[in-house]
UniProtKB/TrEMBL annotation:
Protein origin, superkingdom: Bacteria
Keyword Transcription: yes
Name assigned to this protein: Transcriptional regulator
Domain HTH cro/C1-type: 12-66
Keywords: DNA-binding, Transcription, Transcription regulation
Gene Ontology MF terms in the entry: DNA binding; DNA-binding transcription factor activity
Organism: Mycoplana dimorpha
UniProt GO cellular component terms: cytosol
Span of the signal peptide: none
InterPro entries given in the database record: Cro/C1-type_HTH, HTH_RamB, IrrE_HExxH, Lambda_DNA-bd_dom_sf, ScfR_C, TransReg_Diox_bact_type
SUPFAM superfamilies: lambda repressor-like DNA-binding domains
């Protein structure tokens, strides 16, 4: 078996410089020529086994240090240079390897500085949220991806687009689908635009939900999708054709900064339009009022999924026909935020949605169950929250199921208008906060981070219930 060559020139040079030796002195101690040592230090010659043993014997060098991989540092440096702030400066892997190998202390310093930068950016963001909650405008910002810009636009505005909603309702009336919207949309696509919808098995389309082939004019859907999700994909294709002008008009009003952000936002608007087509405003509004916003009743009546019906509840804000202003939050089981929306914008300052005590996190332990809580914030604001897990596309036997959780909420003062309000009086409110960094509740067992507003109360004689005691 071929012997692995060890190129560790920068490490040998670092050993020599640490000992204060010239190349001639080190070469003499190792019984090699200065020119050969020079080639080794420039990584033009590998270290032989005999030379490795001699380095260990003469200079007491740890062989693990000479043979150790730098992949860990390279991986971390790659993450640093993937930051949007440095994306234009991203060096190739060879340069990163050279930095990690030839100057490990410099690499360590870069990593420490980047961690400090991210920590400070996080603190500034938390402080901006705190100041905003108290009515102070801020201009604090950090480098953002196009997705971040789109999310911010959608989260801060009401989740209602009147032009799209009215046009979708008119399109639904023209289709007159009866109880078979999917069949009507397939027939319309084929009749008006020559588009044929086909369902493909997993092996034919393993990584896609849908794909539109412009050459054959066929819309391919993955068999992984539930019937409800298949309907939404068909509806999204139809509304992009039938409601193209309305979607583009609302896209322009969002005033996004780049083409990538516009592309993402157009997709989100098409999803909104698909929901508006599947659940026409007037019919859904009337049904929601009669069912007292029971999401399970609504999803059965309109033949949609729990997630689709819940999303539509946040869109009922037509002037003169507005409903309870619901908001929603979706996270995965690692706590990553997937999306946020609200009938009046997501209540970031008042509700936050990042408290570990919220039932959206407990939902993962009870898949498919609806959990209802009354949540009281530190400032006295209270919210009704309804959480449930959602199943992603159908997984194969050897794949892990993609499961997220959805929280639908509204102001507690409106809880009595919903079917869920009947169950919140059975126990006291959950004392929550907007986020650990902004919460000042003492002795919280769920606290994950110290508050930025208080100094840590480190006392070797006293230990509180929370992991982070503060004054």
């Amino acid at each position: 078996m071929a012997e692995n060559k060890i190129f560790a020139g920068p490490k040998v040079r670092r050993v020599r410089n640490t000992l204060g030796l010239t190349q001639t002195a080190m070469a003499e101690a190792l019984s090699i020529s200065p020119s050969y040592l020079n080639l080794i230090e420039r990584n033009q010659r590998p270290l032989t086994v005999q030379l490795l043993l001699r380095l260990a014997s003469v200079f007491k060098v740890d062989l693990e240090d000479l043979q150790g991989e730098t992949s860990g540092s390279v991986r971390q440096l790659r993450e640093v240079f993937a930051d949007p702030l440095l994306a234009g400066e991203l060096p190739g892997d060879l340069e990163l390897v050279e930095v990690a190998d030839a100057a490990p202390n410099v690499a360590s310093g870069i990593l420490k500085l980047y961690r400090a930068y991210r920590e400070q950016a996080s603190r500034l963001s938390d402080l901006a949220d705190l100041l905003s909650r108290e009515g102070h405008a801020t201009s604090l910002a950090e480098a953002r991806l196009p997705m971040d810009e789109v999310r911010e636009k959608f989260e801060r505005r009401p989740n209602y687009f009147d032009g799209i909603d009215v046009a979708a309702e008119r399109f639904h009336q023209a289709l007159a689908p009866g109880d078979d919207l999917a069949g009507s949309l397939k027939a319309w696509l084929k009749r008006e635009h020559g588009v044929v919808v086909r369902l493909l098995p997993v092996h034919a389309m393993p990584a896609l939900r849908r794909r539109f082939d412009r050459h054959s004019m066929r819309l391919f859907l993955s068999e992984r999708l539930s019937l409800h999700d298949q309907l939404r994909e068909i509806a999204m294709e139809a509304v992009q054709i039938a409601l193209g002008e309305e979607i583009m008009a609302d896209l322009e009003r969002l005033a996004l900064s780049g083409n990538e952000a516009r592309r993402i936002a157009r997709f989100e608007l098409a999803r909104y339009a698909a929901h508006a087509l599947m659940m026409p405003y007037e019919a859904f509004f009337t049904a929601a009022q009669r069912a007292r916003f029971d999401i399970d009743v609504l999803r059965a009546r309109f033949a949609v999924s729990y997630e689709q019906a819940a999303s539509r509840l946040t869109m009922l804000q037509r002037p003169g026909r507005a409903s309870v202003p619901f908001f929603l939050l979706e996270v995965d089981n690692a706590g990553n935020r997937m999306r946020r929306a609200g009938a009046q914008g997501f209540p970031q300052a008042r509700f936050g949605g990042q408290c570990p005590k919220l039932n959206i996190h407990a939902a993962f332990a009870q898949p498919g169950q609806v959990l209802v809580d009354l949540v009281e914030m530190a400032d006295g604001a209270a919210f009704l929250t309804v959480s449930r897990t959602l199943e992603g596309p159908q997984a194969a036997f050897d794949e892990r199921v993609r499961r997220t959780a959805l929280l639908v909420g509204c102001d507690a003062a409106l809880a009595a208008e919903t079917v869920y309000g009947e169950s919140v009086g059975r126990h006291g409110p959950v004392l929550a906060g907007t986020a650990c960094r902004l919460c000042e509740r003492q002795g919280c067992l769920a606290r994950a981070e110290p508050p930025v507003t208080r100094p840590l109360g480190l006392d070797e004689m006293v230990a509180g219930l929370s992991l982070f005691d503060f004054q």
